[in-house]
């Protein structure tokens, strides 16, 4: 009996990681799927915006997500997003050239990376601790996402006003500027962070309200690049929007 209990407990403990092999998982239609199949499909459906409002990365996919966000594939995927922005700017964009052209960027996981923070927090598998995240942000050590800097400089050279709109709170302003400048970003037109008043709204509403002010002020928003749907949805939006991959967290 004791031996049976022990085996049962041992099975329970290891279940989350290995039940994929033990039970040989099947999808609803009976497809045999591996843990990798399962997590790959979870990640893709996050990016397709079919999976929404997730609070944490599913425990069994933490290792898969960690591998993805530190992989060459993640870099290639992100670089492709930026490449499509450049194609659009070169072919589909009739810039006014009169100071009313604008482009909007997110900051976290768009200009700079929070992967080092999430690495210490199970790549999103742990519930967010805002105090902890803000303490990390205030150190201004977030590394650059190089491909985005290339687009940033391309836009600057074209005379497009660059507007940064972030869900970071106002208190992080100097640390944010320090971090951005240190990794090579400079020459943006406006850096908009969340005031206590903005914090009462959802992020999507806050960002849409900022864009409303920009449009009312005469700006043409040619494009938005962000890693969250809350950065590109809502009205008014940009003429085009570009979504960078981010399976670690969901902001709304
Ligand atoms: C969040 O992190 C801070 C600082 O590391 C810690 O003191 C606090 O207990 C954490 N809060 C929760 C709810 O875990």
TrEMBL record:
Protein keywords: Glycoprotein, Signal, Storage protein
Alphabetical list of InterPro entries matching this protein: Acid_phosphat_B-like, Acid_phosphatase_pln, APS1/VSP, HAD-like_sf, HAD_sf
Signal sequence bounds: 1-17
UniProt xrefs under Gene3D superfamilies: HAD superfamily/HAD-like
Molecular function per GO: acid phosphatase activity; nutrient reservoir activity
Family statement drawn from the similarity comment of this UniProt entry: Belongs to the APS1/VSP family.
PANTHER family: ACID PHOSPHATASE (PTHR31284:SF24), ACID PHOSPHATASE-LIKE PROTEIN (PTHR31284)
Protein purpose: May function as somatic storage protein during early seedling development.
Protein name: Acid phosphatase
